[in-house]
Amino acid sequence: MKRLLFFFFLFFFFFLRQGSGEGQGQILQRFPEKDWEDNPFPQGIELFCQPSGWQLCPERNPPTFFVAVLTDINSERHYCACLTFWEPVESTQEVVFNEDTTEQEEEADEGGQARLSSTAPAQPSQLFAPKTLVLVSRLDHTDVFRNSLGLIYAVHVEGLNVCLENVIGNLLTCTVPLAGGSQRTISLGAGDRQVIQTPLVDSLPVSRCSVALLFRQLGITNVLSLFCAALTEHKVLFLSRSYQRLADACRGLLALLFPLRYSFTYVPILPAQLLEVLSTPTPFIIGVNAAFQAETQELLDVIVADLDGGTVTVPECVHIPPLPEPLQSQTHNVLSMVLDPELELADLAFPPPTTSASSLKMQDKELRAVFLRLFAQLLQGYRWCLHIVRIHPEPVIRFHKVGHSSVDCGPGCGQDAGCAPSCQS
User: Fold this and answer.
1) Residues 303, 382: Cα–Cα separation, whole Å
2) What GO molecular function annotations does the UniProt record carry, in alphabetical order (predicted)?
């Protein structure tokens, strides 16, 4: 089975609301121009293109790239890749940072006389507005997203001798297998060649290096706490100044939960305009820019993981049950051997020759293997319990409530019908 790799190519630009320093996105171009039957246009996508808000800048910032995740009404995820660059604001679009300062410059006193304010901010000579190229796909191929948007950006900005319409047409008609482990080479018609590696199984999450990065940022103890918090349906909030790190952290935590599937709210990058979602009573895994950390401090039942600072804050009213022993200690020791293999050799008087450390991708696989074995140990005997229940639908042990009341079990029994079988008559 094949599926279209890309569904939409969107072009957003920035315009400023009058009397405010905040703006909103507007669609300049959209491909395809009409909705497809099975894939309606994602409403509100402009909020995810600039999660911190559309704002003018006094200088040209370097281009940025990140991938947000949108979930539709059918609980299917759409991957929204955004490449943002800055262009000078045209003379007809120049807007001051705060139009209200014009009214503040003239303040009427009690006698009706007007005076000028000497503290009015000066307007920069040149302002730059963000412009975003967006790809929306139901398949998760971050590297292909980055390369394709980079190619479109080069054609648009550097004026390459390539027809942009042909590039976008090839992009929209590209199909790849959903799974199977095969490789597919595609070209957008600009002398490029991109290799797409499909996963072996459609349901198997692709973590790349996200799990290894999560352990590097937070450490073993904190990641195990977040793992148990997600298993026990607690609210988990990630904070970072990097949108891509937020997306990778949420991806890594979901990969650790495999083979279980997380069915609650999952928003790796939450726009600032939707922060009220954090007050929902249902569990969630959400990422928020660290600039809005003050707005999250009032949340009393949310576990906050600061990726930049490497800390996890658990509120006093929240209790995270740890893994049962000895699994907790065993898992911690094995994770230490993967992340720091020289720890076991640090105290040896004659240590063996050190071997080269695993690459980040290989370390990611090793960490995920530890958690797969952990789930195998946790669920050991689960199928046998199902076997017993299905063969013996009736209760195996029954308590004789009437007979129990006529037997004196001694002090402390309490005449409970559910006491030990030795209390039965």
Assistant:
1) 30
2) guanyl-nucleotide exchange factor activity
